[in-house]
Amino acid sequence: MNGAMRTVRVGSAGPAHRLVFALLAAVVLGLAAAPYWADRDGIRLLGEFFAYAALASLWNLLAGYAGLVSVGQQAFVGLGGYVMVTLAIFVGVNPLFAIPVAGLAAGVIAVPVASLTFRLRGAYFAIGTWVVAEVFRLLCAQIGALGGGSGASLPARVVLGIAHDRAMREAITYWVALALMLAVLGVIVLLLRSRFGLALTAIRDNELAARSNGVEVGRVKLLVYVLVAAATGMVGAWIFLQKLRVSPDSAFDVNDWTALVIFMTVIGGIGSVEGPIIGTVIFFIMRESLSDLGSVYLMILGLVAIGVMLRAPRGLWGAVAARTGWQVIPLRRLLRLE
Amino acid sequence: MLDWVNTILQGVLLGGLYAMFAAGLSLIFGVMRLVNIAHGDLIVLAAYVALVTTEALGIGPLPAIVVVVPVMALIGYGLQRGLLNFTLGDDILPPLLVTFGLSIIIQNGLLEIFTADSRKLQAGPIEIASIHLPGGIALGTLPVIQFLVAVAVIGALQLLLYRTALGRSFRAVSDDQPVAQLMGINNRHIFALAMAISLAVVAVAGVLLAVRSNFDPAIGPARLIFGFEAVIMGGLASLWGTLAGGILLGVAQTMGARIDPGWQILAGHLVFLLVLAIRPSGMFARPGQ
Questions:
Q1: Distance between CA B166 and CA A281 in Å, rounded?
Q2: In 3-state terms, what secondary structure has residue A336?
Q3: DSSP-derived 3-state class of residue A89
Q4: Residue B138 pLDDT > 60
């Protein structure tokens, strides 16, 4: 013993993270001020970006951590949209307040959906969730009061209820999207840093080992599924608040709300918090530069996703992180000697 | 009463088509645990290959099967060896994502080449011919032929799996890949053959679909879902079970459609969810599976 006592501390943030956090805070402030510096199209695009970033992060939590590869998340996007429109039209609720109600409804309905689809394993679970989404779509098409197959628009009085002047309304809608995305990311980070997150990460890395170490895999998966459904429902409600109208085909579209979201997550990097955000950025850059190509652009996106899956299964961020050890959001626990 | 008997019979005949969608899916799942999300889009691709064949050669859709089957089988072999073999493993995400990507590529590729217009293959006078049964029930000749073809295809697959050397290899790699390899089986080649046979079945199904109803590049995913429902309802890994599952789905759909045209597809899905709720291992699963 040389007398020098050494304390070991478990932490997750490194010294560089102060700088990173300061940068992130600056970015968030800049985004919050967007209605003062961006034009109308820019605001719309950013709002849509937030919605997709939230959907991709949620799908990543579901598939990347809990191992629940769903291709039926459009069920909850559409459900959220339909609940919001129904409440706004028939109850006269301000659509902004209808968003949390839509989330609650999606979460409640996710419980029986899970009890059915969880009976299917692996890839069959994936298609099972798709069937459920199709059932929701066909049922919504049967609701005459909501326009049946052609859908319904938000009435003008409801839209004016958000704000009378159009610029203000668009700014409010935008801020709600930003807040939703930040809340989704915040909850995911807090969740992953908690004991529960430790269980989730254990399931991600090795389900059998997690189970043998006492993780209640079934309960953890159910909880994640319901939580993700609720948040997806809120994002869905926002998406159709921005579109001002909802129809069964657009609300429950597997390509828009699941295929694209999966491609973003996989391209950016599944199983990390940063990956889905980076994937969403890449997707929007591709879309804005290639959208003139029409359906060829979707073929290119499919090819890129296949290429990334085969060459870099952890996505672009996974490849960077494996080489550099970087993590923007500190989730790993590090031992430090003081 | 007679109407309902007729409806059920129509459903049974429709079920033959669904069973063929399911058989190809079930075969590759059984051999390599791969669920092919692009399965429905490959059925639609086969329909378009048949369209091009009939137009180029000036032959009817049923003779065109002779061309479409080998073309699709070759595509299947190439797809498996060139792409899908690299996705197989313990993780279910790579095959799922890659076939999802393929699905999007096929759909949009067909859209680019053939536009979104609805197409149909004309089979000539046989389309309106019918067979009269005692009791005043008339069945379309074409649906009856389709059903018989489906039964024949599933019977042939069954024979292939349980009576031939190739079938033995399929079952061997399905049971234990490393050991099969030790016994001198080239797994990658066997997987590619399984996919080739799956797409040969898809080719027949695609042609029959194209004769039966209109098709366009976007209808693939719904065919995948029908096939999948038939597989699950029939109980995984049983070929005759998929026929039963297909028939159950077909009957549910035609009966739903009789109640209200908007309920056709929905009734099929609801029966599927019901089966999942009460007998998750399928109606015809072998015990102990």
A1: 48
A2: strand
A3: helix
A4: yes
Which of A249, A260, A309 to probe the B interface (max B CBs under 10 A)?
A309
HSE value, Cβ hemisphere, 13 Å, CA-based, for B275: 25
Residues of chain B whose C-beta is under 8 A from some C-beta in A? Answer: 33-35, 37, 83, 86-87, 91-98, 100-102, 104-105, 108-109, 111-112, 221-222, 224-225, 228-229, 232, 262-263, 265-266, 269-270, 272-273, 276-277, 280
Helix, strand and coil percent figures for chain A, each rounded to 5: 75, 5, 20
What is the value of ipTM here, to two decimals? 0.90
Check if A290 contacts B (Cβ < 8 Å).
Answer: no
Question: What residues of chain A, 295 to 334, have a C-beta less than 8 Å from chain B?
Answer: 295-296, 298-299, 301-303, 305-306, 309-310, 313
Model pTM score: 0.91
Is the pLDDT at B89 greater than 50? The verdict is yes
Q: Whole-number mean pLDDT of chain B?
A: 90
pLDDT bucket at B185, cuts 50 / 70 / 90: confident
Q: Helix B220-234 and helix B264-278: axis angle, to 10°?
A: 30
Average of per-residue pLDDT across A209-230: 91
Name the closest residue on chain B to residue A312, using Cα atoms. Answer: B94
Angle at A25 between CA A21 and CA A30, to 5 degrees: 150
pLDDT tens-digit series, residues A234-291: 999 999 999 999 999 999 999 999 999 999 999 999 988 999 999 999 999 998 888 7
Q: Choose the closest CB to A302 out of B95, B105, B273.
A: B105
pLDDT at position A34: 86
Residue A120 near chain B (CB below 8 Å): yes
Mean pLDDT (whole number) for A79-96:
92
Contacting residues of B for A134, CB less than 8 Å apart: 222, 225, 265, 269
Touching check for A270 and chain B: CB below 8 Å?
A: yes
Contact between chains at A295 and B108 (C-beta distance less than 8 A): yes
Nearest CB partner across the interface for B101, out of A119, A295, A305: A305
Q: In chain A, what are the domain boundaries?
A: 39-253
Answer for the pair B20, B150: CB distance below 8 angstroms, yes or no: yes
Q: Which residues of B touch A123 (CB under 8 A)?
A: 34-35, 92, 95-96
Pairing of the two strands A245-246 and A8-11: unpaired
- Chain B within 8 Å of A128 (Cβ-Cβ)? yes
A257, A55 in Cβ contact below 8 A? yes
| Stronger pLDDT, A301 or B136, i.e. the higher one | A301
Mean pLDDT (chain A) is 89
**Angle (CA) B26 B32 B38, round 5°:** 60
B216-243 tens-digit pLDDT:
999 999 999 999 999 989 876 678 889 9
Per-residue 3-state assignment (H helix, E strand, C coil) for A228-277: HHHHHHHHHHHHHHHHCEECHHHHCCHHHHHHHHHHHHHHHCCCCCHHHH
Identify the helix (H) or strand (E) that includes residue A152. Answer: strand A152-153
